[in-house]
Fold this sequence. Notes:
mainly alpha, two-stranded antiparallel ribbon, 2 helices, elongated, transmembrane, membrane, transmembrane helix, DUF1656 domain-containing protein
Amino acid sequence: xxxxxxxxxxxxxxxxxxxxxxxxxxxxxxxxxxxxxxxxxxxxxxxxxxxxxxxxxxxxxxxxxx
Length: 66
């Protein structure tokens, strides 16, 4: 059941969207703080990956059916 507040209908994200955002966030944190080497994510781009994870999760909440 969507939650309505101020014209927005907020819905819980699907499990797949939630897992994608968590995996992206964990990878970025591991690169930044545990110094683990992931070829796609460099330490200078860790914040960008965290921002992408947040945008994915936000899209899952705001867009119905995602």
